[in-house]
Design the sequence.
């Protein structure tokens, strides 16, 4: 009954106007939040200060709505936000436009420069360029209530391109919903440190990222769970050890893998 009423409502002349109004109110609220500061921002600032110092270069790959970019800026970093979704780009421009040191790259990062297809979700935070990741999280039920029913063509650069343009980053945050391996495959030079989101359904992608990063330079690894800004393990470990540790995690655990160049 509820679904039937919703479908009928969509046919009325007022539905599109209502949807545009809702989107505009959400955009304004999001921009307001981006300009504000709260305890969660302070917690993130303390955590990322392990990697980011005043004057550091930071790449925020998959900047989305900027909740990490504003923290990097608060730490005094030159922050390059990489974001292919037009809606998110607009929020970033308006929310961080007055922040010194912020630069927006309206593109994705991948294995090679060019163009690629992006699958846009009903929730912008889980839009993805990986069909395999979408299939994996659909089958697991993690995002069963969401759809990826729109596609857009987006420009693609490589991490090496970014380094040539902006310099070597002290830290790279990568949150690209299953496209992480393509991002690190476009990197051939060591960076200070990098974080990669991982989910159990797509763990093989993460393990290949570990191998890729370890092949570029001597690297140690550590993880944090559930976006809680706390370490999930005591020490930094090598590539083989972190791969073993990640494969032993429970299937409900997701988080961020951190890699730090040691050479």
Sequence:
């Amino acid at each position: 009954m509820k679904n039937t009423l919703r479908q009928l409502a969509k046919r009325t002349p007022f539905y599109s106007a209502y949807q545009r109004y809702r989107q505009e109110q959400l955009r304004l609220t999001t921009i307001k939040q981006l300009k504000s500061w709260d305890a969660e921002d302070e917690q993130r600032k303390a955590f990322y200060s392990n990697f980011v110092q005043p004057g550091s270069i930071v790449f925020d790959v998959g900047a989305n709505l900027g909740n990490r970019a504003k923290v990097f800026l608060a730490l005094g970093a030159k922050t390059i936000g990489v974001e292919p979704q037009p809606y998110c780009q607009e929020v970033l421009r308006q929310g961080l436009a007055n922040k010194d040191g912020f630069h927006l790259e309206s593109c994705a990062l991948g294995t090679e420069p060019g163009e690629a297809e992006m699958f846009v979700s009903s929730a912008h935070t889980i839009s993805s360029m990986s069909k395999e990741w979408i299939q994996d999280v659909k089958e697991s039920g993690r995002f069963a209530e969401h759809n990826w029913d729109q596609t857009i063509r987006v420009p693609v650069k490589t991490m090496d391109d970014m380094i040539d343009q902006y310099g070597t980053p002290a830290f790279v945050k990568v949150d690209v919903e299953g496209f992480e391996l393509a991002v690190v495959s476009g990197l051939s030079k060591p960076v200070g440190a990098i974080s990669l989101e991982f989910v159990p359904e797509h763990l093989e992608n993460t393990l290949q990222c570990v191998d890729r990063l370890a092949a570029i330079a001597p690297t140690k690894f550590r993880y944090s769970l559930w976006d809680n800004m706390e370490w999930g393990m005591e020490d930094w470990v090598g590539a083989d050890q972190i791969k073993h540790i990640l494969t032993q995690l429970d299937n409900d655990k997701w988080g961020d893998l951190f890699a730090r160049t040691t050479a």
Summary: The mean pLDDT is 90.
